Protein: F-box associated beta-propeller type 1 domain-containing protein
Amino acid sequence: MANIPMDIITDLFLRLPATTLVRYRILSKPCFSLIDSPNFIESHLNQTLQSGDHLMILLRGPRLLCTVNLDSPDKVTDVEHPLKTGGLTEVFGSCNGLIGLSNSPTDIAIFNPSTRQIHRLPAESVDFPEGSTTRGYVFYGLGYDSVNDDYKVVRMVQCKGGKADELVFGFPYEIKVFSLKKNSWKRIKRVIPAIQLLFYFYYHLLYRRGYGVLASNSLHWVLPRRPGLIAFNAIIRFDLDTEEFGILDFPEDLAHENIDIGVLDGCLCLMCNHEFSYVDVWIMKEYKVEGSWSKLFRVPKPKSVESFDFMRPLLYSKERDKILLEINNAKLVWFDLKSKRFRTLRIKDCDSSYSAELLVSSLVLGCKGDPTEVMRRKERLAREDKIMQERNKRDDFLSKGFKLVL
Structure:
């Protein structure tokens, strides 16, 4: 490759998946420097997002975490990471090739499955209010703050065990945000009253857990209606730039329906379930403009499923004539927008129930790894080297002593 101009190599490398580029770092020092450079990492991510190439599906289940090449469902790769040995690891979001991992509110990491690089978040305790002794529900969110070029994790923890438990809406809570650029946590003190209701009602109604949905530089959660208590649905948004909460407007006609939220083509979308027989998908084409909401398509209940509790669109096919859907947290199907027919996406050696996240192949976090993990590896190698040197000295001494005896 010494005779190939570097600009041509750069152009070729931008079209390759991150898993290949990690191996190509050892080809030469120029290749190593190129692939590890921040400019190349950013350009590679932009190229991947624009082209739609190298897309993967991250499957997660009770004992399952693996990636599947969308174009080749027979290529299934187990995802190994340091948190996996600690217990039942949650995956709370996917963004630019990164996923959020959690074993507990204080054991959290950002992980890149393509490069196997992990950044463990500094352990941040939950500051329980006076009288509270245990934590209740926990909400997470992972997002990229494009305004500040920063990756952030939101952690909302409900505290229980005190006198507040006796109140109808009195559960205390704590909200903190982690900044990857600063590698530190910050407590959010100014919140809207709807956050309290979110903790109280969310888990009773929605099929999914409380993971924030990322769109337009904000994370979103649904506060669902509850007959007799909350008359209408609400969408809570957290602006990653200003780090403030707010309420997002949506069509009044959907205020009393069974709704959930997702993202499609980078836009926030609503899934409105009509008596579990069909789902209407609405999309917000221009963010924070209520009049930009429009109904995109309707998905009837597939004959292959007994109930239609949950449905989420993931992405369009390259021809944009089909939509990949996640149904009932158990299967993936292609839905033909014209014929209204379904085709199951069959994944090799994967028969159990699972939920899915879209995952792009990226070099975000780089290839050098978490500084803490790198330091541990260096210390381990130094100890092993010291032990080897002492062993060599001992062997040399014994060898010389044996010769003197002879």
Remarks:
- The longest helix spans residues 371-405.
